[in-house]
Specification:
The chain has helices spanning 9-13, 31-42, 58-66, 81-95, 118-146, 168-188, 206-213, 215-223, 237-244; strands at residues 22-26, 46-51, 71-75, 100-103, 149-154, 193-200, 255-258. It is of the alpha/beta class. It has a single domain, classed as 3-Layer(aba) Sandwich (Rossmann fold), CATH 3.40.50. A 7-stranded parallel β-sheet has the order 3-2-1-4-5-6-7, with helices on both faces. The structure holds nicotinamide-adenine-dinucleotide.
Length: 265
Amino acid sequence: MSAPEALTQEQIKKLYDLTGKVAIITGGAGFLGHASARGLAAHGADIVVTSRNISSLEAVAAEIEGLGRKALPIACDVTNEESTQAMVDKVMAEFGHIDILVTCAGIANRFPAEEFPISEFEKIMTANVTGTFLSAQRVGQVMIKQGHGKIITIGSVRGYLGHPGGYAAYGTTKGAVHLMTKQLSTEWAKYHINVNCIAPCIFWTPLTQQVLEDEKLKQIFMSRIPWGRAAIPDDMIGPVVFLSSAASDFITGAVLPVDGGSVAG
Ligand SMILES: NC(=O)c1ccc[n+]([C@@H]2O[C@H](COP(=O)([O-])OP(=O)(O)OC[C@H]3O[C@@H](n4cnc5c(N)ncnc54)[C@H](O)[C@@H]3O)[C@@H](O)[C@H]2O)c1
């Protein structure tokens, strides 16, 4: 294979341009999904936001349309094969291609490991691991036919490091998502599909409100973040746009911490 030709100045300036791209964001009504949608739309992508409950997507869809982009809200449970396939089919019927997938759907229930109800453990495994795999698989099938695509999974610093806060299931699922990302990246490199993962530290969102209101837990979290603050959803925007764009064409199988330095030391 010969080396690609050098980029022109015009191409370099457009490395982050997503005009004409179609991005699906699972968990699109959530905080990180919403931030990802805003970032991708600002760079020109049309946005498909999915969640189990369609009414939760209306505000995000209206905001994206307000930015002058197309927005398609679709109800989809990422743990259900029929629902996920129907979502992909609907996107293809509407747009005819899928360029970007960001898998933000997930749950994070916590219990002490010794008391963790197995039904809860399985629920978290299904939502975070099976749900990520199923959406990547069904969108991946389209991207394989296209011969290109960008998949961004959402891991966590809990996928690298243990924590006393009851993350036996959540941390396990995020470690699995990190490795799933590497596995898919190696299988699908030949189709020019980039598969990368963003691993955030704790964000200020309702998902983590309970943790951040517990002074003792909050201290533990903050003492582990060299930057000295929790993340905000907008911290996701740059990394999501970068991994969705031509600027990251030679990056695949990476797990990118967005964590104020949490996993650096
Ligand atoms: N908030 C944080 O501090 C933090 C830190 C690290 C990683 N993450 C990860 O980022 C992702 C998004 O988190 P968030 O803070 O935006 O959470 P959020 O609760 O605001 O959003 C998650 C969304 O996923 C949806 N969802 C859950 N199960 C689903 C299913 N089966 N099918 C479809 N949708 C489903 C929920 O309805 C919700 O809208 C999650 O994977 C989470 O684990 C979050």
